[in-house]
Amino acid sequence: MRPKVLITRKIYERPLQLLKEKAEVTINLKDRPMTPEEIIAALPGKIGMLAMGSDRVSSQILEAGKDLKIVANNAVGFNNIDLDAAIRLKIAATNTPDVLTDTTADLSFALILGVARRLVEADRFVRAGKWVGWKPNLMIGSEVHGKTLGVIGLGRIGSAVAKRGQGFNMRIVYTDIRRLHPAIEQQHQLQFMPLRDLLQTSDFVTLHVPLTPETFHLLGAEQLRLMKKSAFLINASRGPVVDEKALVEALRAGTIAGAGLDVFEAEPQVSPELLAMDNVLLLPHVGSATDETREKMVQTAVNNILAVIRGEIPPNILNPEIYRS
Ligand code: DGY
Q1: Domains in the chain, number
Q2: Which atom number of ligand 1 is nearest to the Cα of residue 285?
């Protein structure tokens, strides 16, 4: 009998072919996420679950998966999985690192350019038929080249954004829980700063940290107040890293100049105040949304499930301790 796998959302078909040869696959074909009750009802007998980053894989769900050996997240972020419960229940949890690094960095940089040069606002202006001709002061934005880019979290994606910034002749400052060796900093022209100094120095502050208890509301009213009035905040990491209420207030009061956001605290809900602001660019969590990358993410998740089916440790294991007895 072939092992059974649940896929919680209709996804790229091609990488699923090999999985379908090795396993009996059940896919949620509805064009909406499965409810926790639906997942719980579907899990008995399944050894694998290919979950979306938007599925909350709670301890209740993991406990209901009596036969579950792996939850393969179709995302690099894994704050949606109760990792402690997965460790307790000895269920492997995996993510999709690397394959989306450059794609998400591209999107982060698009947010930088978009808010600085008012791209969406200008597009709306043209579409509304308001453009009557060239004007010296029409849609004046902020320069990007030559400015200071503050990267919070210099991991894979943060580093890729920093590289793009250097291509724009930006000065790069960063903060992270781990500081690079000074020789590496010098070689790559990266300047370490404590968060406080980075916020006071940067013209663009871009967030690339995972969501953990330590990074929840990493930027609140107090931190936003440290930013320059002319500075922009970019968030393509996870919404709850920023206190969205405090951000709304900072934007309203002119404490900062604008924001480019791909993620929100209670997505898909967006604070209504943000919808009415011209100096914010709002995207529906599309950091990794290109054809090539989304297919590679599914391939990565499938590879992790196939490894478990073969009795191997999956390559992108997040809780390797489950394999130590
Ligand atoms: C990721 O891969 O973490 C993206 O944000 C999608 O959830």
Answers
A1: 2
A2: 5
* Same domain, residue pair 144 and 234: yes
14 is catalytic: no
Q: Please state, in angstroms and rounded to a whole number, the distance separating the CA atoms of residues 305 and 54.
A: 19
Let me know if 273 is a catalytic residue.
no
Query: Are residues 170 and 95 both part of a single domain?
Result: no
Looking at the fold, whether 32 and 157 belong to one and the same domain comes out as no
Tokens of 177: 């829980």
Query: Which pLDDT score is estimated for 187?
Result: 97
Same domain, yes or no, for 14 and 33? Answer: yes
Ligand 1 centroid to residue 77 C-alpha, Å: 5
Under 8 Å between Cβ of 94 and 314: yes
Q: What is the pLDDT of residues 118-139, one digit of tens each?
A: 999 999 999 999 999 999 999 9
| 57 and 92 inside one domain | yes
* Residue 290 CB coordination number (10 Å): 16
Q: What is the pLDDT of residues 59-83, one digit of tens each?
A: 999 999 999 999 999 999 999 999 9
Regarding the beta carbon of 288 and ligand 1, being less than 6 Å apart is answered: yes
- CATH of residue 63's domain is 3.40.50.720
CB distance 234 to ligand 1 below 6 Å = no
- CA-nearest residue for atom 4, ligand 1, is 75
CA–CA separation, 298 and 301 (whole Å): 5
Per the prediction, the chain carries an average pLDDT of 98
Domain region containing 136: 101-282
Q: Is position 225 annotated as part of the catalytic site?
A: no
Decide: 150 in ligand 1 pocket, CB within 6 A.
Answer: no
Co-location of 150 and 19 in the same domain: no
Examine the domain organization and report whether 87 and 129 are in the same domain.
no
Which two tokens mark 67?
A: 């036969």
Which residues, 6+ apart, have CB-to-CB distance to 22 below 8 Å? 2, 3, 306, 309
